[in-house]
Design a protein that fits this description.
Helix 3 packs across helix 4. The protein is mainly α and about 220 residues long. The termini are far apart. The chain is about 70% helix and about 0% strand.
């Protein structure tokens, strides 16, 4: 789907450039964009390597375990339908920890693994479970304490104060996370309300379930 969208945008740009006689500008923009992509990638690699190293040190120092203990009750509240001790819980905690540090690229693999583990609990493999929807919402609108990736981009483009966005990013992601949790709770309730109730038991003329002929079950008849 995304490949088709990008291909369509390229073809549309090429068509407009050809019609307007601006192929030179189109070609220059293509190569300038490729050059900028490589330059930004190198800047991001250095920052990501640094923060991944910090996370490895934090892991060896048991800091991530302490963060997981703090986030554990929150995860249990947000994912009540995931059994305690299930492998998905560990991947969800790792995903949330990486997102807190603004390491979206590091959080993505953990989110994918969490989705795969949640899929093992899914009775209908063609439909996402409430837990999977919750994870997607939290991963998209996660609270970010240190927007490392954005700081790296601002630093790469010569910003005078790359870390100036920390406060506003924290406020924006906090509001987004609260909105995502509220929407998730609402849709969970709506799903429960829309779920058809099970068939009521068929009662006999006063005493108990019938066996289809109006009589009591054989096991309950004495003598």
């Amino acid at each position: 789907m995304l490949n088709g969208i990008w291909l369509g945008m390229i073809l549309i740009g090429f068509g407009f450039a050809a019609v307007n006689g601006r192929m030179n500008e189109f070609t220059a923009a293509v190569f300038d964009g490729a050059k900028s992509g490589v330059t930004v990638s190198f800047g991001l690699i250095s920052v990501l390597v640094f923060w991944l190293g910090i996370m490895r040190i934090a892991e060896d120092a048991d800091l991530l375990k302490k963060i997981s203990k703090v986030l554990g009750p929150i995860v249990s509240f947000l994912f009540p339908d995931v059994p305690k001790g299930h492998p998905a819980i560990g991947y969800i905690l790792s995903n949330m920890s990486a997102n807190l540090l603004g390491l979206g690229n590091a959080a993505t693999p953990m989110g994918i693994k969490a989705m795969q583990e949640l899929q093992t609990l899914n009775p209908d493999k063609e439909t996402a479970t409430p837990a999977m929807c919750t994870l997607l919402a939290l991963n998209t609108a996660s609270i970010t304490l240190i927007p490392a990736t954005l700081i790296a981009i601002r630093l790469n483009y010569g910003s005078a104060d790359p870390a100036a966005i920390v406060g506003t990013t924290l406020a924006a992601t906090a509001v987004a996370t609260l909105a995502a949790i509220a929407a998730d709770r609402l849709f969970r309730r709506l799903t429960l309300l829309r779920r058809p109730p099970g068939p009521p038991p068929v009662l006999n003329a006063g005493t108990g379930p019938a066996n289809g002929s109006g009589a009591l079950p054989h096991s309950s008849v004495k003598g």
